[in-house]
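Design job #97: recover the sequence.
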């Protein structure tokens, strides 16, 4: 039985393996891996008074952006990374809300780890 073709396939596979971003020896070769963007570190789902449309929320100090859909607004932090986040939410007809949240760091594993655990928090605004 001729073992040359089998050996050729095995050598080809071993040479191809690092191109997939799989572990190679001690570390990983991420030079050929395309990663998607990281999720915002902090996302706030902001609701207004029951029965009212989504509020026009603004994050004070340019700390992020807000967009609204039919029932609530979604605000995302401009910065990404682990740490403490403090933001001021304001909307016409509602009291300002000061939000303080901690985004936890996570161990970076693999080629596409962002190094933090994204947080999503629900915030209920109160009428003035």
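Job complete. Output follows.
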């Amino acid at each position: 039985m001729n073992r040359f073709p089998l050996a050729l396939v095995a050598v080809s596979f071993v040479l191809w393996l690092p191109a997939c971003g799989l572990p190679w020896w001690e570390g990983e070769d991420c030079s050929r891996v395309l990663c998607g963007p990281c999720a915002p570190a902090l996302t706030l789902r902001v609701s207004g008074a029951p029965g009212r449309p989504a509020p026009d929320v603004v994050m004070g100090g340019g700390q992020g952006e807000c967009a609204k859909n039919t029932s609530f607004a979604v605000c995302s932090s401009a910065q990404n990374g682990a740490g403490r986040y403090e933001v001021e939410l304001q909307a016409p007809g509602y009291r300002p809300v000061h939000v303080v949240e901690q985004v936890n760091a996570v161990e970076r594993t693999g080629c596409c780890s962002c190094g933090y655990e994204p947080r999503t928090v629900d915030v209920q605004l109160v009428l003035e």
